[in-house]
Amino acid sequence: xxxxxxxxxxxxxxxxxxxxxxxxxxxxxxxxxxxxxxxxxxxxxxxxxxxxxxxxxxxxxxxxxxxxxxxxxxxxxxxxxxxxxxxxxxxxxxxxxxxxxxxxxxxxxxxxxxxxxxxxxxxxxxxxxxxxxxxxxxxxxxxxxxxxxxxxxxxxxxxxxxxxxxxxxxxxxxxxxxxxxxxxxxxxxxxxxxxxxxxxxxxxxxxxxxxxxxxxxxxxxxxxxxxxxxxxxxxxxxxxxxxxxxxxxxxxxxxxxxxxxxxxxxxxxxxxxxxxxxxxxxxxxxxxxxxxxxxxxx
Amino acid sequence: xxxxxxxxxxxxxxxxxxxxxxxxxxxxxxxxxxxxxxxxxxxxxxxxxxxxxxxxxxxxxxxxxxxxxxxxxxxxxxxxxxxxxxxxxxxxxxxxxxxxxxxxxxxxxxxxxxxxxxxxxxxxxxxxxxxxxxxxxxxxxxxxxxxxxxxxxxxxxxxxxxxxxxxxxxxxxxxxxxxxxxxxxxxxxxxxxxxxxxxxxxxxxxxxxxxxxxxxxxxxxxxxxxxxxxxxxxxxxxxxxxxx
Lengths: 298, 244
Hints:
heterodimer; A: 298 residues; mainly alpha; MetI-like fold; 0% strand; globular; B: 244 residues; alpha/beta; Rossmann fold; 6-stranded mixed sheet; 4-stranded antiparallel sheet; 8 helices
């Protein structure tokens, strides 16, 4: 019997209340002046009215230099900083997801405890944990120092982080696979390498693809931030306008990022629905993704 | 029962073997068991007595608690040579997202000695592919060759697992309830193909079968595991024989 099964329902409730009270005590210990928290709402309203709103949509207009030569003229938004920055962020996310996935698969195969002895799997896990322990923005600072400003630093930073993060997801998926195909391969005399290539990867392919798509979505969201430290992408422009206190332009960028993130999330849901484990599950339709369930009823 | 020209060297030899998952809880004690090439041996017994565990121990997947296990001339922990041992587990162990051909090719590849192992495995030889297709056809699955396993019925999946082992051309086939979920006509076909292979290539077949009637029908020798011991099956007298 599992430990949690033995706890009665009233005990659960008491435990939850105690945990909540404990967290309040910790918070109270950290905050000296609660009055500052109450001033926050007022500050936000002032900041919003005087600096943020309305957004300055000039970020969607072509830059003064270099001169925009795009034809027809309604496409000239492609010369805007918002478009250029966003496209660069998407490119960084895509390339780093591809490189990260390629590099993480061998490491995750080594890290899986059902395929390797403990010393191999724990050594590989050590590297994966090291890559994952720093957030992508810290890796971006590190690579900006190494290779200078620009998207290359962004690609390297996101790739390293992807290896650590995706590697963990992958080895957990591999460890979750049933033992019987591995037993059958071992009995047949297939080598570890052959088993990994011909049994483990095909068997967990759906999970691996779904995780890679999720990682692209994740990298895109984080790619908007790494530009702040000079690693390319739309974050560069956000940082620029923050320095000049042009918050109305910053909010315009943030709204654009929000819309694109939402769009990529929706595409990711649709793409991942092709790789769900059970074929009996109804596949998401575009309508079901973009509209709430109530609007989907015929 | 048929007369088999026994080879002198057994393909499986177990001496004073105790099997089980925990040292303090042994499942079966086997003083002596020898299985020869060309022989079909069935193991029967109630659920949970250790039939599948015995197969796993012979396959080298579980360490015996004590005693010596020798398979294809290799004593545990040494393993039989690549492809010498074909194993159809009870849960089949197929790659569910891959096609029938991919799964059967695993067997064909393991049974085919490629001169360059890595390159040979990535680009399997036409001989291995021919063997795989032949095995698939023999199991009546030619129309399902490119279907992913997860779209097949339970019975079809069992036939794929059997085809994978036949494509391997092993010296020893071990099959754990490989005829369950099959209808009578398909059982005849599958059993016919496996028996034909065993007889023609002088291989051995060790099969776990809970249906005693079927086990008696297919096997040259029937062993029963009961109460932690493995014994030859002794036919109980029928009502007619008792009257006489």
